[in-house]
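The aim of this short unit is practical: by the end, you should be able to scan a pair of folded records and say something sensible about each. We start with the first protein, listed as its amino acid sequence and then its structure tokens.
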Amino acid sequence: MSARKPGRRRPAVPAVARALLVLALLAALQAAGCQRAGFDPAHPDIVLVVVDTLRADHLGAYGYDRPTSPHIDDLARRGTTFESAWSAAPWTLPSIMSIMTSRYPSNHRVENDGLRLAPEVPTMAQTLRSAGYATGGFVSHVYVTAAFGFDRGFERFEDFGLSRPGYRLEARMEPTADRVTDAALSWVGAQGSRPLFLFVHYFDPHWPYDPPAAYRALFPSTYAGPLDATYDSISRFQDPLVPLPEEYRRFLIDRYDGEVRFVDDQVGRLLEGIAAGGRAVRTWVLLTADHGEEFKEHRSMGHGRSLYEESIHVPLIIAPPPPRAGDPPAAPAPRAAGAGAPGAAGLRVAVPVSGIDLFPTIARLAGLATLPSGLQGRNLLPDAGAPDPDGAGAPRLLVSETVRLNAYRKAVRQGREKLIHFMDENRAELYDLGADPGETRDLAPARPRARARLMQALFSEVDLLSGGWNLRWSSDGRPRRFQGEITTPGLFRSVVPLFTGPGRYLLERGNTLHFTDDGQRGASGISFTVAPYASRVSFYLMIDGRPLPQRVFLGGKKVLPSALPFSLEGDAKADAAFARPAHVDGREVGYFLWRNRPAGPDQAITLDEEIRERLRSLGYAH
């Protein structure tokens, strides 16, 4: 795969220059001929394009040396390119929901199949519609449909039948980008002078990699083996231990690049259609991706489980309306010193940003004076006189997370440092993205203080434990074996091991948790959350190989179960369920089970003091 060429990378631009660019762009927007066309310049049209499975490093604007993206590159030349944008998750459903709600997956809670956005969580489309915008959404995969709540706030929401009975994953039932473009342009043409918010989702770069013949011809392959670019062929290599033959890997990338170029042409056609209708003069365009794609850089194929940069580094481009013919040229945008390569006319921002920032940014462009509470993102185009968010103090924290395909992983970035926490394996990896952008050298063993600091940052930034269950076990000073199985018909959202010894755990199928703590003389434990919140949880707990219900204490009243296994309904509201059973660690043999209180949609992250103390002792929290 072609990598970014060092000579083509533009120097980073200070955040202050970014603010100056914003002022210039806003002035250009206001000075354009919107009023002459009968449009309100204070409420421009806004087009959000999300391209599924689009790696940033496969676009010319990000240094790729193949002609995959002439139209997107042109958009970057007249706008702002964010070089270090992260997706909030490495797969479609939670990532795009994070874009639409400005919340991390652990906050909006739509983290896997079967989960739907809670009615009290506001969306971008709802907010814009209430401000008088016409809202249209055109999506091309089931994970962006009404089944999960994506239709909320859209006057017109088109999923091309993907939410109807009979849809099957990997059956190639998704509409191609040209069909999505046709439908979006038809809707735009019927909106009159009303300001509009258009959301377009293109699925094509996702596997199977099957671009039209003309786009295959742009990146011809010499591969003559028995495999093709369908899911059945690619899935043979999803096992990290199965190597991907280089010739076949190159073939897959050729096909993938053809898909990218096909979508790029449709992006161009979408923008040309908007211009043909006379709306370009008032239209801001924001283009990004929900996640990237892996071609075995870290032994994985596809996406969903891993949080390396090939999965979560995505493009993000924000472009103002183009100048009208006959209008005076807008004030030139600040440029990186010495930038002379193609695309250098647009500002390039190296400060890390996230998909959760799009909601507040779009709301600012739309002229909204107030935003819903609970948003976790920030406006990327600050107002005149506003404090520079990156000008002083510690770099901002960013998070990406997944509970997909039995992987429970979270990544946190601060500046050039990045930590990946493998909850399913109870370990962490640490990388310096400035010195090692390919994440080839794990620094966690050599930098324990940085690891602990970023773990603390992760626990302060995302909601891992509110509404969760706490299971503690205690010995009486003699070595004991504690083991058990915890199951739920729902889904484990997070698992936080609080082991003080050699304890270990294993997650299976997303709904079964096994743990073993052998030779424990003191106390240890584990905390976890499930989704939906009210899901039933069943426990089978043993001490020294025997089920002992008389040594299992539930809640503040220390209720004993009648037998093992036993089940608890997740919607219990009794105060006793949220109280820690009284006991002295290391002196009383038994299991002690209680629950954290749930957080509201806008409530700050809170932790039970006992849990906080245990997290402190493990270096997870302050």
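Turning to the second protein, read its sequence before its tokens, just as you did above.
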Amino acid sequence: MRIKLNPYALLILSITLLINSPDTLWGQTSAGQPVTSSGTEFMVPKKEVNGRLIGQEDVLIQEVVITDSSRQYRRLDVGITGTLEGWIVKEGPRSNHFASHPEFDFTQIGNVYRRFPGILRYEASKGTAVTLIYPDAGSEWNRKLFVTVHGSGGSFFEGTLEPWNENYDPAWPLADISPYERLMLNKGYAMAKTRRNAALGSPGDYSVTLDDGEILPGRNLNIHAGLLLGMIQLTENILKDRLGEKPLRTYWYGHSGGGINGRLVNFVPGLNLDETGEPIIDGFLNHDTGGGRYIPILEENGVDTLFVTEEQRRQFVKTIEIPHLLYSNRRDLRGRSLPKWMSPVMILNQRDSLRILKEKGLGEKVRMYEVRGVSHFPEGHYSEAELAFQFSLGKDSNVALLDLSGLMDGLIDLLDNWVEEDMVPPATKSDALELGDVDEDGINENEAVALPEVACPLGLYFQYPPGVAEQIGNMFSGFASFDGQSLEPLDGRGVFVDMNLNRYLDHRESVDQAWHRLGLLKPGERFSRTEYQACVEAAVGNLKEDRLITERVAARYIQEASEADFPGQ
């Protein structure tokens, strides 16, 4: 379905999100008064670095019971204060980063300047926190944990990141939980939403003390694996205390910068191992990983040393990558001193990463499902609170985001079944012939994923919707219907949207004309609801056969096809 963001209809939108999600989790919610306590007994042990103990120093917990029409949950907002070791650069790209692994972070963003080691102290009062939600008393817990890691963004300095105990709103107790996170809870997972200071374009919130004593302000924690893994192990300790045992499995969902961090955890040898040598994270869902990074190459003196031993390859855990084809370009990578094996184009890096992993013998541990018709931000990604913030930025009804909640519903199950039951997922789906499954006639039988809105289009999704600032317009999408009357629209840059691919501005096609051009109608056939429903049923059938959507989501798509309004009619 398509949801348009209208700044004058936030309440309606919030209700729509709940109704149209694959599973409506929350009914009428209520919550008691939160109770605050110390959580220092759950801290991860510190480690010594240059004679100094580094790690978590203080943990505070704000706990509340939340009840909806049928379920009861515990919500714990956990504020964390502590220190981290890492590296900075004093100039060049990402100079506000405090990086745990500069050989990836700075190298693959094109920063060739000198790196300096130091210590950063982060604070719960400036937003470093985790929100943990689980079934009260564990009665419906599946004994697994899903951790979500947001992308770049969030600044206490700019007011886009709240102190640890101000994310919870008693009047709207789940406003900050996204539809994807609700899916995880509805499937019985405990869910931990991590929060970190990760803004790219502003001074960071923390100072770094270098090894020589120099203090440099303005750093953030966008790409720091140590911070996130410490949060996760702390969360597991809390669950053991509250529910009697640590999770049997812990999964990672990361969007954009969250996916970059996910790759980092999975790539660096030994990083994803606990004190017993077992994986901390058992599987990854990396969603539209920022810039297509990191590429699985680590050069030392010009020689690639990554995944060259059997032990390194054994440590790599199963991963599903979900690139968005409409978000193919990262302008901020152009002109950089990138390694020769990197591209400034996101989708090329995504594809090269998969190709390299296959060449290194890891093809059976990774799948990539490219998705058509969606830019960086899909529907389902935002919580209601985040949507409200987007409204404050001036988004209007020109923004239309393709809803990926139904696909995410299937992918969560796909990853779990792959890890738990070794149920092999479908082959990679890509519009790149070298990655798809090409038959003897050269036809790609595993093209990118086309949800019914794209496989059976009533219009076209496009980047740079009008009304969104150009510097971020490529991350969002607009929608132009096949109405058979209007001129093809102009995007937010003033460039016409070539809906019929004839390279000049003209009138929009009708749905009938567009479907003939796309081969969805045979000569002499006319578009009708019968044809539309048949197309949707076929698209849904293919997705269901590949286990990319569930039966519940399939039924929803088919029901919507019987009710859809057709443009120009």
